[in-house]
Amino acid sequence: MNSGFLNEKLTPILMIILGIISLLFPMVSTQTIGIMSGIAFMLLAIGFIINGISEIMMTRYFGLIRVIYGIICAIFAYYLMFNPAFVSGFIGLSTYIFGILLIILGLISLFMGPIAILGIVTVIYGFLTVILAYMINDPKILGSVIGVWLLISGILSLFTKKDYIDV
């Protein structure tokens, strides 16, 4: 099996299969995202705590701050790994902030930029993002959105002639 087959056929097929599974079992995909994110934050927490403890000997304040960051990351990782509602709430909050920033940037571009249509498109995209953020606060809808994204990305990647996948 050569790498061309892997990039051009196998990966998009796996994305389509995972998208279908995510649409059939949306809570499983939300929990999987939470577990993977939680593991990443737990590794970050361990790094902060180890670095902070080793740095306490040199400078107490910076070491203590890193240990506190590590404890906060560990608590955050626990909630990400074991609470799907927290995962969707966190992603929803992040998406709300992104949508509001898009609206603000669109309004600035609308009134100050040379191309007004770009500002209008950015404001519309910002409103759509805020609507999406409202919808993905439910873990089942978040899992379905992940499934649709995997399906669309897999189908588009299947018919693309590139050596890489734009997702």
The chain-level structural class is: mainly alpha
Biggest β-sheet: count, sense, barrel?
A: none
What count of helical segments does DSSP give? 6
Strands, count: 0
Strand content: under 5%
Helical content band: over 70%
Q: Can you tell me the residue ranges where pLDDT is under 50 for at least 5 consecutive residues?
A: none
Instruction: Give the termini separation.
Output: 24 Å
**H/E topology pattern:** HHHHHH
Mean pLDDT: 86
Domain count: the total is 1
Spatial extent as radius of gyration: 21 Å
Query: Rough shape?
Result: extended
Fold and architecture overview:
The structure is a single chain. The protein has 167 residues and is mostly helical. It has one domain (13-158). Helices cover 87% and strands 0% of the residues. The chain has six helices and no strands. The chain has helices spanning 3-24, 26-56, 60-82, 84-112, 116-135, 139-158. α1 crosses α2, α1 runs antiparallel to α6 (139-158) and α4 runs antiparallel to α5. The longest helix is centred in the first third of the chain and has 31 residues, at 26-56. The mean pLDDT is 86.
What brief labels describe this structure?
single chain; 167 residues; mainly alpha; 6 helices
